[in-house]
Amino acid sequence: MKKKIWVPVLILVLLAILMIPIPSGVYEDGGTRAYTALTYKIVDWNRLHGDGVFAETKVYFFPKNFSSVDTLWEEELKNLPQTDSSESKYEDYNEVFLDKAVAVKYENDTVENIVITEIYGNCFFAQYAWPSPYVLKLNGRLSDKWCVGDQINCTIENGYADNDAHRLEADFLSVEESYWRQDPGMAAKPVLYLYPEEKTEVFVKLALQGELTCTYPAYHDGWQVTAAPDGTLTDAKGQTYNYLYWEGETNAQWDMTEGFCVKGEDTAAFLEVALAKQGLNRKEANEFIVYWLPVMEQNPYNLISFQTTAYENAAALHIAPAPDTVIRVFMTFKGMDAYLDIPAQTLAAPERKGFTVIEWGGTELK
Hints:
- Helix content is 16%, strand content 42%.
- By secondary structure, it is of the alpha+beta class.
- It is built from five helices and 24 strands.
- Strands 15-19-13-24-23-21-20 form a seven-stranded mixed sheet. It has a five-stranded mixed barrel with strand order 8-9-10-12-11.
- The protein folds into three domains: 16-78; 104-177, CATH 2.40.50; 185-364, no CATH class.
- Helix 3 runs antiparallel to helix 4 (282-296).
- It has helices spanning 2-19, 69-78, 267-277, 282-296, 309-314, and strands at residues 22-27, 32-36, 40-44, 47-49, 52-54, 57-61, 104-105, 110-119, 123-128, 135-139, 151-162, 167-177, 185-195, 200-208, 210-216, 223-227, 233-234, 240-241, 244-250, 260-263, 301-307, 315-320, 325-336, 356-364.
- Strand 11 and strand 12 (167-177) form a beta hairpin.
């Protein structure tokens, strides 16, 4: 009797296995859903095709139920009206962008970390992801995969650059996504020198739009030191220091639209002149160069810009008693594989007189 009861139960179980479809996923093609059983597969199509959407529900019986959704889609395409893949939904760009008579050959075979700004049928325009005055025109039809705002890297050929107009034009060969993102600005080794006219108790407070990561001497909501005219600083315990040191992270938006592009091997000579123009004495400039040169001279080129407004907004100083002269030199730089011409900065500094505060620091844009 028990055997007779189990027979229909087994039959029902087998029918359920054979006939009841199990969801097998949602596909990132517009929302296609599939449900699979051992004898058939149901696909609820919702996939882009041409200028529209293919939206139908279809049943595929054994053995097609074991085919992948992509394989089934290839079969469906055979029965769908075909679109002309050579046509573009964008108009062609037919204006002259760059005068090759005044342009120079661009030796690099890549452009990296650029953002698409305009798309045409026969080319697209882009700008660098970091602030730069250059506009790029890349010739060739861009795949519909890419949109305005995408950040990409390109391999290129036949590149020409007009450094006066800050334009670069080339034929692109391939495009891939760029995952470069500018890190929060790391203010690396800003150091503060205090030069009062006579021995003075000085309080220094830093209003950083971000987070301090290292200080020396320890920063306890400010520094309280006795400063001597030669710059020697003494804390309450009698410990002496040459300067106040801090390091931190900030979300400052650095401005790289003006600056200098310098060969790595010429960096030391460039900094000697640039730092002197900004008011650093030989000792201060020497300490700046010794800190940064090992990193910078290894690069083929360095794109260098000295920040003023962005830096002071991100790291304001409050000093008591108030100094007569404040000079803050903050350098941002990015290692480059090739020369990039940008408008030159004008470098200057106030005359050092009275109680003088000098600060230098920098950050490397990755």
